[in-house]
Design a protein that fits this description.
With 115 residues, this protein is mostly helical. It has a single domain, classed as 434 Repressor (Amino-terminal Domain) (Orthogonal Bundle). It is built from six helices and two strands; from the N terminus they run αααααββα. The protein has a two-stranded antiparallel ribbon. A hairpin with a 6-residue loop joins strand 1 and strand 2. The longest helix is centred in the first third of the chain and has 14 residues, at 4-17. It is globular, with a radius of gyration of 13 Å.
Length: 115
């Protein structure tokens, strides 16, 4: 089950560690609306998989770290590191190396997070 409290705490810690004072700045960087980010931070919604991927890439952590499955902060220690990330500000799509994305999905399904 997704733990909103833990996710919000982890997100706040990551923002603090990066010196991010403005949620608006973060929202723009990961291509979601400030309102959508506010809903995540205030436990009113859970992040979509593309938002989790964007946050993980932005903070250079694994999705597992973001959601509290593991405590490995350094993404380079993870086998699911995205090596070819490009965020297109025009249409909000996150392009990622297909093989790594497939590995992330397999890992998440294996850990019984997705149906």
């Amino acid at each position: 089950m997704f733990d909103k409290d833990f996710f919000c705490q982890r997100l706040a810690e990551l923002k603090l560690s990066k010196g991010i004072n403005s949620s608006k700045e973060l929202a723009k960087s990961i291509n979601i609306s400030p309102g959508a980010l506010s809903n995540l931070e205030n436990k009113k919604s859970i992040p979509a998989i593309d938002t989790l991927i964007s946050l993980a890439l932005y903070f250079n952590v694994s999705i597992d770290y973001l959601v509290g499955i593991d405590n490995i902060l350094d993404q380079s220690k993870s086998e699911t590191t995205a090596t070819n990330m490009n965020i297109d500000k025009g249409d909000g799509k996150v392009q990622i190396e297909v093989e790594n994305l497939q590995n992330m999905i397999i890992e998440v399904k294996f850990k019984n997070i997705l149906p």
